[in-house]
């Protein structure tokens, strides 16, 4: 396994650790439902516990989301094993991996089996989200861009 093959795992680990540390601070410093303005009229930290997926879809389907996260992790490992990937594809997969694991850790180890969300943008009225969510989104965008640019070759 070449040096670049490890890039996605390093990115995934950094995202997972950063995500869990930020969530730990949010849970310790902000009561559920309370907020701290970061940039007035633009962004705030608002502590919520999300029982569902994105946009609170399918609430309380903990094991479904855990199975999806496990499938994502398995797919990332298989793709990394079978293909020679560009650096941007490696980073994209790493972001996807770290984000999936970050939210899965919340669902499995939180007493309420919910995900801690905390970022709210006033300017676009986007639902409250977290670093893991953003990592998944950015990772998918990087993978799409990487696919359009080419540079990923199937292994023999």
Automatic annotation (TrEMBL):
List the PANTHER family hit by this protein, alphabetically.
Answer: LIPOPROTEIN SIGNAL PEPTIDASE
**Annotated metabolic or biological route of this protein:** Protein modification; lipoprotein biosynthesis (signal peptide cleavage)
Q: Which organism is it from?
A: Alicyclobacillus acidocaldarius subsp. acidocaldarius (strain ATCC 27009 / DSM 446 / BCRC 14685 / JCM 5260 / KCTC 1825 / NBRC 15652 / NCIMB 11725 / NRRL B-14509 / 104-IA)
Molecular function (GO) terms for this protein are: aspartic-type endopeptidase activity
Role summary:
This protein specifically catalyzes the removal of signal peptides from prolipoproteins.
Q: Which reaction does it catalyse?
A: Release of signal peptides from bacterial membrane prolipoproteins. Hydrolyzes -Xaa-Yaa-Zaa-|-(S,diacylglyceryl)Cys-, in which Xaa is hydrophobic (preferably Leu), and Yaa (Ala or Ser) and Zaa (Gly or Ala) have small, neutral side chains
The protein's matches in Pfam families, at most eight in alphabetical order, are given as: Peptidase_A8
Q: Which family does it belong to?
A: Belongs to the peptidase A8 family.
GO cellular component term of the entry, any: plasma membrane
Q: Which residues form the active site?
A: 117, 133
- What GO biological process terms are annotated to this protein in UniProt? proteolysis
Q: Give the gene that encodes this protein.
A: lspA
Highest taxon of source: Bacteria
Q: Where in the cell is it found?
A: Cell membrane
Show the stretches that span the lipid bilayer: 6-25, 60-79, 91-109, 121-145
This protein is called what?
A: Lipoprotein signal peptidase
Question: Keyword Heme on this protein?
Answer: no
């Amino acid at each position: 396994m070449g040096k670049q093959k490890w890039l996605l795992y390093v990115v995934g680990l950094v995202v997972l650790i950063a995500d869990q540390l930020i969530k730990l601070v949010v849970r310790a410093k902000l009561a559920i439902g309370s907020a701290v303005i970061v940039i007035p009229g633009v962004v705030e930290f608002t502590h919520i516990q999300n029982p569902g997926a994105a946009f609170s879809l399918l609430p309380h389907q903990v094991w479904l989301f855990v199975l999806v996260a496990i499938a994502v992790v398995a797919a990332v490992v298989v793709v990394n094993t079978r293909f020679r990937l560009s650096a941007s594809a490696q980073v994209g997969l790493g972001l996807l991996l770290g984000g999936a694991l970050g939210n899965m850790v919340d669902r499995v180890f939180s007493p309420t089996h919910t995900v801690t969300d905390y970022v709210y943008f006033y300017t676009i009225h986007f639902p409250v989200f977290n670093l893991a969510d953003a990592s998944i989104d950015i990772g998918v965008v990087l993978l799409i861009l990487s696919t359009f640019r080419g540079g990923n070759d199937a292994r023999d």
